[in-house]
Design goal:
alpha/beta; Rossmann fold; four-stranded mixed sheet; two-stranded parallel sheet; 5 helices
Length: about 130
């Protein structure tokens, strides 16, 4: 839908969105139509991340419960972004991906937890990483 992009677009020189869902891409296009600094790719992140020619300062990811996975974490680290914002809905996959991010030079600076579903095991989090 471009939820995060809507807040970042006016502050970014260039904003690249990568989304798997065609419905979300349609919403992204409609919601961010006024911005000229946008590019949108409809594909799995791991399939296009390394083929896009750009040097991001910040990468924001919000994966499904499956997390990022090995190929995506490797792609993120190859981009060399100095900052990473990771929105997670599963602590287990975040822990798995965090271990790989740390081995690729990222350091966890801060994490905020959100109990959006009280009395369940579901925990949302936003973590902030820097590439050291």
């Amino acid at each position: 839908m471009g939820l995060f992009s809507a807040f970042l677009a006016s502050k970014a020189k260039q904003l690249v969105g990568i989304e798997l869902s065609s419905e979300a891409c349609d919403d992204f296009t409609n919601n961010l139509d006024d911005f000229e600094n946008m590019s949108l790719y409809e594909a799995p992140l791991e399939d296009v991340l390394c083929s896009i020619k750009f040097n991001p300062d910040v990468i924001v990811v919000d994966p499904s419960r499956e997390g990022l996975g090995r190929k995506t974490v490797d792609g993120i680290s190859s981009q060399g972004a100095s900052h990473l914002i990771y929105v997670s809905c599963d602590p287990a996959t975040l822990a798995r991906d965090a271990k790989r991010l740390a081995s690729r030079g990222y350091t966890l600076v801060k994490i905020a937890l959100f109990d959006k579903f009280p009395q369940t095991f579901h925990i949302e989090s936003i973590s902030y990483w820097v590439n050291t």
